From TrEMBL:
The gene is PRELID3A. Coiled coil: none annotated. This is PRELI domain containing protein 3A isoform X21. PROSITE patterns: PRELI_MSF1. It comes from Physeter macrocephalus. One of its GO terms (cellular component) is mitochondrial intermembrane space. Residues 1-172 form the PRELI/MSF1 domain. PANTHER family: MSF1/PX19 RELATED. GO terms for molecular function: phosphatidic acid transfer activity.
Length: 172
């Protein structure tokens, strides 16, 4: 098992970042997400928005990884659940893969909150737990996947900035 974590600060207020995060896909920074389906969306009695989505991704796994996993398919599915609390100003998003779970499990948690010292900025904390099961070179694969997650996180930050920038440009 390998744990990857990161923190990123956006130079935008929480409301702006959350609107962009909810519209994150598709984006040109991370074309591997090829589909997003909303399975369920509701507002609870406390005014929090709950969303369950299914993401279809084309990982483009290296040939060596596909050989180790014994699969030629690179299309994977991810289950995502998010809760947006507009009163408490917190968004929590949890996702996990539902493809290849016999070999690889990736659970990710993202939390967006206003910066404690500057309401004009937003803090994103991310953590991913990667577990490779029953495969030789499991530690190597966990390390490789942690590097992929780190790279994709940076693309995700850039995508949110791109969405905000394009929304502002459209308004002007």
């Amino acid at each position: 098992m390998r744990v990857w974590s990161s923190e990123h600060v956006f130079g935008h207020p929480w409301d702006t970042v959350i609107k962009a995060a909810m519209r994150k896909y598709p984006n040109p920074m991370n074309p591997s997400v090829v589909g997003v389906d909303v399975l369920e969306r509701s507002v609870d009695s406390r005014g929090r928005l709950h969303s369950h989505r299914l993401l279809s991704t084309e990982w483009g796994l290296p040939g060596l990884v596909r050989a180790i996993l014994g699969t030629s398919s690179t299309l994977t599915y991810i289950r995502e659940h998010s809760i947006v609390d507009p009163v408490g100003k917190k968004m929590e998003l949890c996702s996990t893969n539902i493809t290849l779970t016999n070999w690889v499990s990736v659970s990710e948690r993202l939390v967006y909150t206003p910066h404690p010292e500057d309401p004009g900025r937003t803090v994103l904390t991310q953590e991913a737990v990667i577990t490779v099961k029953g495969i030789s070179l499991g530690s190597y694969l966990e390390s490789l996947m942690a590097n992929m997650i780190s790279s994709n996180a940076k693309k995700g930050w850039a995508a949110i900035e791109w969405i905000i920038e394009n929304a502002e440009r459209a308004l002007s």
